[in-house]
Amino acid sequence: MRTTSLLIKIALIGLWLSGLAARADVFLYELNFDQAIGTRTFGRLTGGKDGYEDMENGDMPVQQVLTPDVRDGYNRVYLQGSGMFEAGTDFKQLRAWTQLGRDIKNPDGAASTWVLVIDEGFFTESGLAQLIMTWSLMSGYNTPAGTLELVRPDGTVAVSNMKSVTGPVVFAKAPKGSQLGAGRYEIRYRKAGVPSSAPATPEPIVDEMPWAARGRKDVKVCPLEAGKTVKLIPGQLRTFRSGAAVGVAAPGSAEDVSLNDWWQIRYILPDAIQIRLFDQVVIGYRITTSYGSADSYVTITKSGVPEKFEYSARENRGIMRGWNLLAAPPLVLLADDPGFDALAALRPLIMDSATHAYAVLSQSAQMTQCRAFWVFNAGSSSPEIILEGLNTGASRPSLHSGWNFTGVADDTKSVADLNVISAWRWNGRHYVLLKQETSLQPGIGYWLYRE
User: Fold this and answer.
1) Whose C-alpha in 135, 331, 429, 446 is 20 to 30 A from the C-alpha of 51?
2) Contact predicate 401/451, CB 8 Å
3) For the chain, which residues make up each domain, given as ranges?
4) What is the pLDDT of the chain when averaged over all its residues?
């Protein structure tokens, strides 16, 4: 009986000690600055997340301190959020989504890493030469049991034990001696005995892709490294239209893939009907190591509007009998377009930029925007060919010194717009020199000479 009682006491003491250890890993620190830019808070709380969008537990964009003497540049000092880029928002709103004044992580992992950004814009906008930072453990929390250090952008340790000191650390526009410069700093916490840090909260990722049915986009998120994995967060594939969340029955598909020494997020758009319903997709993912994790989002936005481009006599770019000098439309062509197959059957000739020799155009990828080509029509009729592509905005060809074999973009109105010495067009029998005020047309090929 006495032995049983002793075992029970030992078990209770063990539970009490483990509770203290768990409590020691739940903490909040406040970063204080000598200027009127407010405070920044980081820590680990039950229910916290390893990234952005934890408003209930405190994650929030940097908020302006509501005092009349608030310092310019206050929002240039922030904890980096994993970030979600909202479509249709202005630059200031984008910054708010990606800058946190308070970043709280989950205490379940053996380690956590926060990112403190001291943007050089702070010194430019505020006119100050330096910024002094101190920190303190917030009331109601015990000192964490593990290590807590401030790490410079180059990976060296600036403060080895943030638990035993409270600063100060001096950030300077032109650092001298022990002063630190602007940059991206990491605050790393590790439980006792943990040999490595957790992944840092990733920088925001925003990319774009042509909005074509079944189109695919691979976005690099981090290099392949031993012991590190990237996985999608369940339920975190969301669609938006003009910045507002919209429900789509088939939002496409996403997967995490390891490809070419990188972890990548692969997204495939849905069919032609569904893609008209949204113009942005946000995909959540998690980077995990043996000691911790960090969440982030990939935001992919629409980069082009579907359009058709017609080669016909009524469009003044018909494929007449004999040789025709034409050009690819100012569009990103869609894959498996039957219109391109019809054009390729005529065996168009494109010029190799390196050798200046002609070669047969056989793949749609070779038909880049505004690329000139020759095509020979042996028949007596003029075939009508319609290509489908995405208008991603005016794509003015890059002109170099000397002769350029090219087409023109939508916004080119005349020869004078191109700042060239001379422009020549093929009329079906011979070349014609064009006047500076002559209107140019997309889909027609030209020889342009620039000094």
Assistant:
1) 135
2) yes
3) 23-190, 205-303, 306-450
4) 83
Q: Which amino acid is at 388?
A: E
The CA distance from 116 to 129, in Å, is: 19
The rounded distance, in Å, linking the Cα atoms of 408 and 429 is 22
The full DSSP string for 102-160 is: EEEE-TTSSEEEEEEEE-THHHHHH--SEEEEEEEEPTT-PPPSSEEEEE-TTS-EEES
Say which residues have a Cβ less than 8 Å from residue 146's Cβ, sequence separation at least 6.
24, 25, 111, 189, 190, 191, 192, 194
In terms of Cα–Cα distance, which of 151, 152, 171 is closest to 161? Answer: 151
**Reduced to 3 states, what is the DSSP secondary structure of residue 323?**
strand
- End-to-end Cα distance, the chain: 102
The upper half-sphere exposure of residue 291, i.e. CA atoms within 13 Å in the direction of its Cβ, equals 17
Cα gap 115→366, rounded to integer Å:
43
Backbone angles phi, psi at 5, to 5 degrees: -60, -40
User: Count of CB atoms within 10 A of residue 291's CB?
Assistant: 19
pLDDT at residue 59, rounded to an integer? 54
pLDDT confidence of residue 247: 84
Residue identified by tokens 């709103």 is 93
The secondary structure of 30-83, three-state, reads EEEECCCCCCEEEEECCCCCCCCCCHHHCCEECCCCCCCCCCCCHHHEEEECCC
Measure the CA–CA gap between 77 and 70, rounded to whole angstroms: 13
CATH topology of domain 205-303: Immunoglobulin-like (2.60.40)
Mean pLDDT is lowest, of 242-246, 250-254, 260-264, 298-302, for 242-246
- Which run of H or of E encompasses 92? helix 91-98
One-letter amino acid for residue 227 of the chain: G
pLDDT digits (tens, 9 = 90+) for 39-86: 888 998 876 655 444 444 455 556 554 444 556 777 789 888 755 444
- Is the bond leading into 168 cis (omega within 30 degrees of zero)? yes
For residue 191, what are its two tokens?
């439980």
